[in-house]
Amino acid sequence: xxxxxxxxxxxxxxxxxxxxxxxxxxxxxxxxxxxxxxxxxxxxxxxxxxxxxxxxxxxxxxxxxxxxxxxxxxxxxxxxxxxxxxxxxxxxxxxxxxxxxxxxxxxxxxxxxxxxxxxxxxxxxxxxxxxxxxxxxxxxxxxxxxxxxxxxxxxxxxxxxxxxxxxxxxxxxxxxxxxxxxxxxxxxxxxxxxxxxxxxxxxxxxxxxxxxxxxxxxxxxxxxxxxxxxxxxxxxxxxxxxxxxxxxxxxxxxxxxxxxxxxxxxxxxxxxxxxxxxxxxxxxxxxxxxxxxxxxxxxxxxxxxxxxxxxxxxxxxxxxxxxxxxxxxxxxxxxxxxxxxxxxxxxxxxxxxxxxxxxxxxxxxxxxxxxxxxxxxxxxxxxxxxx
Length: 387
Hints:
387 residues, Growth Hormone, Chain: A, 2 domains, 14 helices
């Protein structure tokens, strides 16, 4: 009987997201412990994105040539080693080394998605990707809270070693349960660098890519500096910060699992993305001026709602802006733009917070979301088709 790939793929994505969310509230405090400035903390967060931006296309091509399963195993091994180095760090350079190792092999999610695309029928693909969405949402919901509890009780190394243990389990499951596939034939599709020019020359795809870039820049700026901001403004430690991230994950899970479909049907993707951008801008911009915990909780909830409805609606609009044969390529370009945002956002946030510009930190993140809202609001391109 043919084994389903969904369980090991589910665990792969879950571990990948759990590792990310274990690091999100932990890494800034870990770096501060070794004497890093807020700007250096931002550079540390950006290091992973830089390495991932370089390695992602390379791993994708390797997986086409040698197969998804061996490439996925190598990627998982890199994640495992990165977590071990993070847990055993006794100086700042080891934190950077852990992020470089993890980022240089960070193909877990993209290879897992490619595996599902290869092994499922088109009519079953949405359900399969929905299964992966559950893994993503679950990891983001519980990861930060677990990280905060482990770090507060057992020290900064504990969340990293816990993530390493889960990563090792994921490697075993992939090796023993994931069916092997034959390598894909080499693709004749244009390289991603050429895809940039191909889509930016056309008005509607260009507009959708700019909207997505505005979203990822706003989100990366906010998330890249959130732990530092909470530490500076409210004197939060890693445990309290983990709860804030978990609250954001809970709001996102409730939206994604409950009302997003009804909102999309009643409003349409364009209006829904505008609503998302507007609430992001509101939550982000006023966050920098929050001085009480109740106000903080309300603003985090508003911001989390905005990002939860903006991302899927923007992704849908992006895929609708091109023909079916170009959807993979345009999503690849959007991933590259997301990588650029994940480099810029944490560095800008770290510099602003390090120079005590906490209000400006929120305004910059909110301003990026407002730019996205203005792009969505432009009416004269609505009738354009994906020529």
